[in-house]
Give the backbone structure.
Amino acid sequence: MSLKKITSSFWAILAVVSLSLLNISCSDTETTDSTNFVIYYTGMTDIGPSMVGTISQPTYKGNTPSDFAISSITLNGEPYSGDCFEIDSETGKISVQNTKNASTGRYSISISCVSGGKTYNFPDIVVVKLLAAAPEGVVVTPNLLKADYGDIIDINSIADMPTAMVTTEGEHISITSYKIGAVELVTNEEGASAPSYQPLDEEYNKCFTISTDGEFSIAQGEVSEKLEPAIYSISLILGTKVEETMLERAVMFQVTSKPLELIYSNNYGKIEEKTNEDPTTFKSVVPSFKGSTDGLTFSIYSVSPSTDKIKINEKNGQIYVEDGHGFKKGEIYTISVCARNMYNTEEEVGKIFNDIYTLETVDFIKPITKFSYTEDGNNKIKKVELARYTIVPEIEGDEVLYKFSNVPDELKNSGVTFNENDGSISAIKGNKVAKGTYTFSVTAENTKGPKTIEVTLEIIDNPNKFTYIHYGNNLGADGAELEGDIYQNQFRFYSNQFSSYFPTPTTDYNGDATDLKWSAEMIRFLEPAGGYPKANGQIRFKNWKDNQVGILLVTATAGDDPDTQVTVSVPVFVHMLKSPVYQIEYTPFVLHVNPKVGGTSTSPKITTKGADLTEEQRSMFLLDYRRTFLYYNFGGKRSDGTFHEDGRPDADPISPFMQNLWDKCGAGFGTKTPLSYYNGTTAKTDWSKTLGYVDNSNDKNKRHTVNILANQWNDDGWANGFLVGAMTYTETGDISKLNGGTEIAPFIVWFDENYEEQK
């Protein structure tokens, strides 16, 4: 595991991007880790034996990747050399094909790529589970459902949502469970011989429901707002007594709507009065539209004052005026547009967007005579890495729109934006653009003609850049430091000796360490003692809590300029161990885990009166999450920008985030079920409604490990933060004794959607 790994994810969290997005700091000091590189794939995990499609190109953190290749594939852990998977070397898109006669099972695909001149390999980063086809005789009736978008997103709508039923012909098939499988967007491109299917992220699975008796429908409310009007194909996973099978593309669901939104990004334009032989014309920007596009047409609804010279492209909504209009200087026209599709009734005109555009007639539109991004006109821009900036062109000319072309991939999805309305180039603080030189073209155009220039952006060293803070650990024998990121910044104390412990950090800051500005704040129990952190970052702990874990957030900032300064924050963890009869030590006691992937801790050391438990004693020792589940958010947010809330599902402080997770598990807020290994007094066999658990199986290698399940910790956005839950134990092997067992908190789960464990 890379030494920087433990801080790399916080790099993303506490970057400028983070402060605006995460709302976890009062200062405007953010950064990102351009030294670390991670990719993520989503979509198409469970498929059937005739399904084909494309797993979309990955998202990434770091420099723009290239030269993608499949480095290896395994099927159920064994090498696989078939032709079911191909990768686009430029984009990283993975084609799934030739599955009809392929072997069922779990395909783990390892991907390599190049970023920043380095080659990276990501073992088993894509997992595709090929399920057997559902037995013959299984059908869904009806197999096409329709519902209006407005009714879908309104949980109080009185409209009945359509349903379909899974049925079997005859008595030979016994279905024991139903689950939503792959959700795909269906498109019918003009001229195509067949529809195309685009796999969607697993978040879309939550938009559909299927009951325990096989009734399929759509989920009403906010969870389905992401379903734009379109056609979706849904596969179903059917459990039988023998295996899970897939009923491929079992049902189509069409989300319909009348026209909903029409937006012109620039809703004000000018046209020149005609005073000579030169033509004077006008074209608006093409608007964005939300709603069903079936039978969609645009028309001019009204113009004030009235004229028939203002027209609209009925297919794309672009407003235009041809030469010969006769408009006079000072005339201002207010335009209303009508959008209509096949879901409007015959009696309806359509959706009227009143006064959506204004057009003014002027005596003269100045042609573009000067266009540059620098005072000297050489268009060579120099900026430091990670810095925030906005560059506005110097231009002489009226009614100018801009177009950027030949933009290097390294500038895309990197925190740099190109505004085609005003021509500005902006970068957020903590942007991911690596040092180097980037060249692209910019065209400025008005009705008098275009002017194109070549712009060079050079990114140079940021003297404030640093990427990590490391305090080490004391988890080895006699307090020695263990090597590896999984142990970084973790300390265990057996008494109040922690108040006399003074860890000092190391960083990769190239300047004088005393130039860094340090601060610390309590997340859980731990507080910095008075006068700490010192000028060198040294800390001292206070606020001991028996048999608990504490979290302290330490922050260092380099530089004084708000646009170029760099801030890194790192959590420091302490296990405050006051031994009851049984002493439980996880090493490490923090499980750093990507919630999309899940993870498993080490098995803890358990002792009594200084001696390790015997194998027989360990087999009788039960340990389980039981109560006081506390979540401390550290950047997790929903799609609407609201942040996941700190707290508990059942008591003050109440966390709606935690309540929503409990609700998805079908559990009451005061129950332990989502994090317990047990249902009542028996071990669970179905983990679909479980977030995580302490393993109490007979496998001595897994016994008492903490397991966090993949893809469960999501409430319209992934968990990013810390979870601490109270465990209880009994040495008798009697499950009924767990609730009344001794309570401890020896463990922390650190959720981080940017974390990628290094193999």
Remarks:
- DSSP finds five helices and 59 strands in the chain.
